[in-house]
Design brief:
The complex is a heterodimer. Chain A is of the alpha/beta class. Chain A has helices spanning 40-46, 71-80, 96-106, 112-125, 141-153, 171-186, 198-204, 222-227, 232-241; strands at 2-11, 14-24, 29-33, 55-60, 63-65, 81-84, 159-163, 190-194, 207-212, 215-220. The chains are: A alpha/beta, B mainly alpha.
Chain lengths: 242, 235
């Protein structure tokens, strides 16, 4: 589903991703862990074209991003890939409902009625059916992030990317967002999650990728990687965060 | 030989006020549209468009309005021989050019004040460039544009008095005429000044009402705190 091949990315003269290769299968849940500045968010942002790699490529469902990509491929990737941000990035001037219907109408060409039905269904799913007419400002962080998840899901994505979705939340409301994500994983959604929630990574993911200094250090099933990390750097990192 | 200040003089000043209002309104429409386009160019990713916009804005802002008026009035007929630029047309073109440079800067600044995450979320949802701006960025930018925009409008109305220099019978020039007809410059200019004040004060009052309306509808980003809004949702 996602095939990353020797991906390199530089900001100015500094290379921040040094030739990353990895893949994600359909219905797989992959968590990317690592210290701040290890390039894990940057890697994730490459997967929907928010960052443009300087070399290598990313193929999503056969649509290739990277140097020499076709604009049509970028459009398809953006349509097929949903993204949830650390700071939610809801549109503050639109109601919750309009946040979820806007792209359905403008990108997928759904009618007002179709998009609203889909939005209400998803709001119900994330437990916020009663907030449809509120503005994002009046929501708690956990509610806002669940709306953001609903907004991404409304586009019927093949893959969902999560960029530290709980890092901006108070500890006591992290759970409500993780619950929504677990349900999504259980339904078979392909997910790539950059996270500091080791509990979530261990419990929900099929595979964990540990990144350090712009490179993948180690990849493995969560039970193996957390219990017996092979690389010294992985051990050092895990001993700090667990 | 001098007449005393009478209804005819007031009528002349009123006609001048209409001229001022009309040329300023047209300058707002044309200059605003051009300024929006230039602002979008300078906020965009295409280097050549950013450069064109920067050169244009820099040049216009570095030149007195009076010179822009002269350039249009005397220069256009030279550039395109055989054309005759009527004074009101020259005034509208010159004021539009002047306004566009400042509107461009206001638009650019307001777009820069929108948090990056808003652009990214709109991009990640697959919205096209036009949809991103039309439905996500500009509605938020408008809230930031209006207060300085009205501030500039007041400047524009006052600076439009310079079109009197090419003989257009605007509010300022009608004051000149009335002053010499009545030999009562103080009273004439007091009346003219009062009319300018009323026009400008009305514009400012609109801006204040708009800001109040925004603050009662607690939707980020508010005026003034635009640079520090994170997501606008964490409370």
């Amino acid at each position: 589903m996602i095939e990353v091949t020797d991906l390199r990315l530089s900001f100015g003269k500094t290379e921040v991703l040094h030739g990353i290769s990895c893949s994600v299968a359909e219905s797989e849940v992959v968590c990317i862990i690592g210290a701040s500045g290890s390039g894990k968010s940057t890697l994730l942002r490459c997967m929907n074209g928010l960052e443009r790699p300087s070399a290598g490529s990313i193929a999503i469902n056969g649509h290739r991003l990277g140097p020499g990509e076709k604009p049509t491929d970028l459009a398809v990737v953006r349509r097929d890939v949903g993204m949830v941000f650390q700071h939610f990035n809801l549109f503050p001037h639109l109601t919750v409902l309009s946040n979820i219907t806007l792209a359905q109408r403008r990108v997928l060409g759904r009618t007002a009625q179709q998009s609203e039905e889909r939005a209400r269904m998803l709001l119900d799913k994330v437990g916020l059916a009663d907030k449809a007419d509120r503005y994002p400002d009046s929501l708690s962080g956990g509610q806002a992030q669940r709306v953001a998840i609903a907004r991404a899901l409304a586009m019927d994505p093949q893959v969902m990317l999560f960029d530290e979705p709980t890092s901006a939340l108070d500890p006591e409301i992290v759970g409500e967002v993780l619950t929504v994500m677990k349900d999504l994983a259980a339904e078979g959604m392909t997910m790539v999650v950059v996270t500091h929630e080791m509990g979530f990574a261990r419990e929900v993911s099929d595979r964990v990728i540990y990144m350090d200094h712009g490179a993948i250090v180690e990849t493995g099933r969560p039970d193996e990687l957390f219990a017996s990390p092979q690389a010294e750097r992985t051990r050092a990192f895990l001993s700090k965060v667990l | 030989m001098f007449q005393s200040f009478g209804p005819d003089d007031l009528l002349l000043i009123a006609q001048g006020a209409v001229v001022t209002l009309v040329i300023c309104s047209l300058a707002v429409v044309f200059g605003g549209t051009l300024g929006l386009a230039l602002g979008l160019m300078s906020a965009g990713r295409i280097a050549i468009l950013r450069w064109i916009s920067a050169v244009y804005v820099g040049a216009i802002r570095g030149v007195p309005v009076l010179l822009i008026i002269f350039f249009v009035y005397f220069g256009l007929p030279l550039a395109v021989p055989g054309t005759d630029v009527p004074d009101y047309l020259a005034a509208v073109i010159a004021l539009s050019v002047f306004a566009s440079a400042y509107v461009s800067e206001i638009v650019r600044g307001s777009i820069a004040a929108i948090p990056r995450g808003q652009f990214e979320a709109a991009e990640a949802l697959g919205l096209s460039y036009w949809s991103r701006y039309r439905f996500v960025i500009l509605p938020q930018a408008t809230r930031i544009i209006v207060p300085p925009g009205i501030g500039f409008l007041v400047v524009l109305i006052k600076d439009s008095s310079l079109v009197a220099a090419i003989g257009l019978m605007d509010l300022a020039r009608s004051g000149n005429i009335v002053a010499s007809l009545t030999a009562n410059p103080i009273l004439s200019y007091l009346v003219v000044g009062a009319v300018y004040f009323v026009i400008c004060y009305t514009a400012s009052a609109f801006a204040r009402r708009y800001e109040r309306r925004l603050s009662t509808r607690a939707v980020a980003p508010g005026v003034g705190d635009s640079l520090v809004v994170g997501s606008g949702v964490e409370k």
